[in-house]
Structures are given as structure tokens and as C-alpha cells.
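Q: Lactate utilization protein, please. Structure only.
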Amino acid sequence: MSRTHLGMPSFPPFPEAAGAAVHNATLRANLRHATHTIRDRRAVAVAELADWDRLREAGRQIKDHTLRHLDRYLEQLESAVTAAGGTVHWAADADDANRIVADLVKATGEREVVKVKSMATQEIGLNEALAAEGVSVYETDLAELIVQLGDDRPSHILVPAIHRNRGEIRDIFRAEMGNWGRAARDGLTDDPADLAEAARLHLREKFLRARVAVSGANFMVAETGTLIVFESEGNGRMCLTLPETLISVVGIEKTVPTWRDLEVFLQTLPRSSTAERMNPYTSMWTGTTDGDGPRAFHLVLLDNGRTEVLADATGRQALRCIRCSACLNVCPVYERAGGHAYGSVYPGPIGAILTPQLRGIQSEIDASLPYASTLCGACYEVCPVAIDIPEVLLHLREGVAAQGGKGHRMEKAAITAAGWVLNRPGALAAGEKLLTATRALHPKSPPGAGAWTGGRELPELPARSFRDWWRRNRR
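A: Structure for Lactate utilization protein:
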């Protein structure tokens, strides 16, 4: 298992997957409607704050400071969680994390788990690992429930089922809910309130029965050992309060030093993600308390490649990410290709820089992700922690080019040849004359340039070169 759990290793490279996705009219319509709606509302919510730029800069500085001193803050976090009655486990990779969680669940004697929406557990493939141990995992976030019932994959950080419309969701509920628990009622419609009620009734019996819950966390406050989850439905709070045992799997980069630091993100995350002034459900817990909430709390701190990302001065800014998904909602590439084309649980611009760093660029799909961008910069403009995604994309492209490959060897040879000609005016003039004289014979797509010319038209060469024009007009 290990770090391959970040996505689907057999998934095709981004250009191939995106090429198929852009021909799916339903997918494109779903994505266009959802992303445009979210980003328009976000723009209004952000414009309400006169100090948004200062909050953005504060978030960047807090994250950078924490990452520079992460070892110290993680030790402080461990001490605080332990003092509050929790138990901390350290997981180097996906295998470690999955083994730890599976052992903790089996120690309770339970064979069912309810789960809060969590990118980290998707990253490590926890659901599949627990299923292999005979443990059933039930997603409780509405969108994650849709994905699970549909035997599907998430395609968005904030709205995992963004690629589905209401009619498709109704059909999934009708066909699959009965196989997982309480069935959808006869005559279920695609009205949002009707669908939400079906999900509520289906999940309620699981909340009341569950003895073990698994969660992630949006933030961890080092000074008190407090974990925080942002959500919009209340299902997460049911998972965090009703079961007897709570197991939280969290990436080490989610740490913030103090409560005062958290205050910044309490303002920027809701506005950047759901375009709300305040998050509807912000759940916080610190260890265990007699008679209130779970009797046992376990925190699994996940590395899974993060310390390697920290070693890269340019790439480490990807670890600032607070998973708001604003970059996905403005990205013209994501809007047309959808999240599945990225072959990872982290889609869109942030996925294009995070996944190759966590997983490495050895595979064809990971080497293709840094090129899944137009470099328009819209992602950087909306990022609430000022991650310069285009800068990291170019940095990663350098790494891909450095490891070679047929295409890069051809590109290097072409650049070398062009440099030789441009440094020799006589050779350049002779080449221009030859190209002008043979312009009728030029192919519309030069050999080896199909990937570039497939979506562009080559300009026609003029009847004479600029050099000739200048010579005649200057005289």
C-alpha cells in the first residue's frame, strides 16, 4: 500500500483522462454550473471584508512559521493531547496509519465505523484497508455518501459529488440505499429537500448504533491539543459526540500554534470555501471529558511524504493549503476536465502541485500533473494563504524535464539547435530565405509537435522575411 494510496496508480495520464472528460456534456454542464455558482458567491463574501488582503497575508505567515518550526509544534501538540486524556500515534506512511486505525477498531470489538469527511483518510485508502479487515465504514457527509453509494470517486475537495446532478443522485439513492441500510422511500424525487431527508433517515440509524468513529481535522491547536472540524451539515458533530471511541487521522501540516492563529482561519476558510461569513458547524474537541463525548480519543499524526515536501523550499508552500477548494472553482482546466482526470484524491490546481510532491513524479500520471494548467494565475489570486501555484507548477515541470524522457529529449535537442542558429546571423538569414522559398511545402503540423498544434493553428509564413522588409524600407 504505502504512498500509492494517494490516488489510483493505474489511472491514465492527465492529458488522456482529460481528453475523454471534455466530451462528456453532462459532466461539463454539472461542473460549470456548480463552480460558477460557488465562485460568484465567494467573491461577494470576500468583498465584504475590507481587511481581506491582511487576513490572507496573516494566514500565509502563520502557515510558513508553523512549517519552519513544525517539529517543535508537533511535540507541543502531542504533550497537550496526552495531558487532556488522548493518545497520540505517529504514522510514517499509509501502511502505518491504516494498521494503527485497524488495530484500534478491532480492539473495541466493533465491526462498524461511522466516518466524518476526511481527505487524509481518502489519501491513505483507509476505507479499503478497514474493509480488508472485515470492518464496514459508513460515510456520513452527504456528498461522500453519494460517492460511496454510487461506487464512485470524489471529484472535488469541498463537494466530492460535484460531478453528479440531482437526477443522478435520486437514482443512486433509489438503487443503493437499501443495500447499505435504510432504503429510500418509494417515489423519492430529485428535490434537494427530499434527497436530504432520505439521507438523514438513512444515516440516523447508523449514528445511533455506532460505537466507533473516524475523523480528520481542519486544524490542530498545538498549545491546547484541540482539534477542529469545519462542516455544513451537522453529520460530523454526530460522529464526534455519540460514539464511545473517536480516532482522528490528520496530516502533520494541519497544526497551528495558538488559538489566536486559528482566529484568522475561522474568517478566511468559510468565505473561501462555502462563501459563508461563519461556518455552520465548527466542532472542537480536546482529549476526553468524563460524561461528555467519546471515552477514548486517538490522534494519528500522518506524514506520508509531507516531511519530504518540507525539504523543498519552493514546493513546501503547498503544505499551507487549508482545503478550501477556491482554486478548483476558478480553474478553467478543472472546469472542463473534472476532478477524476487528476488521478488523485486531491484534484484541481492544488492537486497538480501536492500529489506529485507527496507521491513523486516517477509515474506517467504524476509527471503529467504539473502540466495540467494554463498558468493563468487565477488559483493564486483566490488562495486564502497565498500559495503561488503557478510558481510551484513551473518548479515541478523543471523536475519532470530533468528526469528526461523521449519528449523532453526532443525538446532539448530543438532548443539546442535553435540556440546554435540564433547565435549565427548568417545561418539565420539563410534559414529565413529557405523557409520563405519553400512556404508552399510546409506541413500544417510539424513532426513531433502534434501535442501543441492539436489545439492551435500554425501561422502562415509571410511572402518575405522581416529582415528583407527592413532592408528595403530602410533604404
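A: Brief note, in case it's useful. The domain at 2-307 is CATH 3.40.50.10420 (Rossmann fold).
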